[in-house]
Specification:
It is a single chain. This protein starts with a strand and ends in a 6-residue tail after the last helix. The protein is globular. The chain has 2 domains: 168 residues, Rossmann fold (3-Layer(aba) Sandwich), CATH 3.40.50; 178 residues, Dehydroquinate synthase-like, alpha domain (Up-down Bundle). The strands form 3 sheets. The chain has a 7-stranded mixed beta sheet with strand order 1-2-9-6-5-3-4, sandwiched between helices. Helices cover 48% and strands 17% of the residues. The chain has 16 helices and 11 strands. Bound molecules: glycine (GLY). Glycine binds next to loops.
């Protein structure tokens, strides 16, 4: 497999990616003398069954670790679960020099990073992302968080991992829905940071792209692009003062839709599906606010709506979504601010949009065929 990279970010998190990524886990733990007060592996039910056996086979350190388990799914990203894990760590005698290994998708790495950041004012942690979402985005960049009720990622820390280990083979353990969800972040990286790659993606239908095996050269290239792009951005702006906001393309409306669907309880949206919906809205707003050419907008919206399920929102609930958007961390002075594009590969951050424009964008998402 060609994907082999070791990229150092300014926060000194090495990222190992490729077939041999897991073989680097022991080397890093030994060379940095991590886990002298014990090693703990955080898993959910799925990763315990499908990923832990391979991880412990590849790592002597992980084979001797204590396993901490949570339920899969967004509901686990809570202060309640964090408290339970802190108590488990305390009961197991974890100390300041313990190491937490997050083996799972975005929920495991966000929550595990948060728990590591808080326990005894901070212990070391590493991420071994097993979902495409985690491998392409969530596990890289040191953002850790839990949700507050329905509102996503409201409490958290910028707290870098000691290392990130990306083994693409774990993607074979994913359902089609979770693969598609991760693909949204892969596509986002190309739309925002690599116009040429986005053009090459458009040659495929979404179904054909998802049908490629994880080890297919193009799938690896897409993952490598997402990892590289995220690293480059995080190197320059770890604390999201400005540049890092480019990674939030599609997330302003996406997070609100995701929270809304979870509160509704009817078929909650996966994070990537919500980001895809948010990208449709962001493309519409980009056409209106930052001069994204209409042809580019139509291509983007058509591709995404062909590949991702739509989530119907009755007109009477649009105000609820607007309220949820007010919690977006990029907002300032009471304005809802978006990351948009003026062309693929040319992002623009901090673009304030009025409620009426946002409602129009949501209407476009509900009726994309009328756009153009
Ligand atoms: N997921 C966006 C970021 O890490 O900044």
């Amino acid at each position: 497999m060609k994907l082999t990279s070791r990229i150092i970010t300014t926060d000194r998190t090495p990222v190992f990616a490729g077939d041999h990524a897991l073989a680097s886990v022991d080397k890093l733990i030994s060379s940095l003398h991590l886990g002298r007060d014990g090693i703990f592996v955080l898993v959910d039910k799925n990763t315990k069954q499908h990923c832990l056996p391979l991880a412990v086979q590849k790592s002597v350190h992980l084979a001797g670790a204590v396993i901490l388990e949570i339920d899969g799914g967004e509901a686990s990203k809570s202060l309640l679960t964090a408290e339970r894990l802190w108590k488990d760590l305390l009961a197991a005698g974890a100390g300041r020099r313990s190491l937490l290994v997050n083996l799972g998708g975005g929920v495991v790495s966000d929550l595990g990073g948060f728990v590591a950041a808080g326990y005894k004012r901070g212990i070391g942690y590493i991420n071994i992302p097993t979902s495409l979402m985690g491998q392409a985005d969530a596990a890289i960049g040191g953002k850790t968080s839990v949700n507050l009720g329905p509102v996503k990622n409201q409490v958290g820390f910028f707290y870098p991992a000691k290392g990130v280990f990306i083994f693409p083979g774990f993607q074979t353990t994913l359902s089609c829905d979770h693969l598609r969800s991760g693909m949204a972040e892969i596509i986002k990286s190309a739309i925002v940071g690599n116009a040429r790659l986005w053009k090459r993606i458009l040659v495929y239908s979404p179904a054909d792209l998802l049908g490629l095996a994880p080890e297919h050269p193009f799938r690896l290239e897409l993952l490598a692009n997402a990892i590289r792009f995220k690293n480059e951005v995080v190197v320059k702006d770890f604390r999201e003062q400005k540049l890092r906001k480019v990674l939030n393309f599609g997330h302003t409306i996406g997070h609100a839709l995701e929270a809304y669907s979870q509160a509704e309880g009817r078929n909650p949206m996966l994070h990537g599906d919500a980001v895809a919906a948010g990208m449709v809205c962001a493309a519409f707003l980009s056409n209106r606010k930052t001069d994204l050419p209409t042809g580019e907008m139509v291509a983007l919206i058509s591709w995404i709506t062909a590949g991702f399920p739509s989530y119907p929102v009755p007109g009477s609930d649009l105000q609820t979504i607007m309220e949820l958007m007010k919690h977006d961390k990029k907002n300032t002075a009471g304005q809802i601010r978006f990351t948009l594009i003026s062309k693929p590969g040319i992002p623009r951050v901090d673009i304030a949009c009025d409620p009426s424009e946002i409602i129009e964008a949501l209407a476009c998402y509900q009726e994309p065929r009328q756009v153009g």
